[in-house]
Amino acid sequence: MVMSSTAAPTTPLRQRMQQDMLMRGLGVHTQHDYVRHVRRFAAFLGQSPDVATADDIRRYQLFQHESGVSPSTINGAVSALRFLFDVTLKRRDLARALVITRYQRQLPDVLSIEEATRLLEAAPGIKYKAALGVAYGAA
Fold first, then answer.
1. Is residue 43, in this structure, part of any structural domain at all?
2. How many domains does the chain have?
3. Is 85 exposed, middle or buried (0-12, 13-18, 19+ CB in 10 A)?
């Protein structure tokens, strides 16, 4: 079982969540991350997360977005809180209130025809020109 990095005593809720994670075979790092995310949510609430409401979840997720938290961190918190509400607390209504953040897709860099031509011309030999030609579809 994962032990908390703080000196605070383990609450019955945390102990039950850790047992649930252990029974489901979650990895040590995942367990640590889930406990950390739930602890941050509890700190935001100023009380135990077992008394949270759907409005509390909404306020927390807005707080995360407004604070500039990365999508991967927000989604990690969603996974942790879904586990807490769905598995440990059996509050599926609250688990459904959590919203995954979509990543903003970035388009790959694509060379223009002129850039591809210059790249092929700069290649030192036929082998490199052939490889670049295949990679960039040049004739």
1. yes
2. 2
3. buried
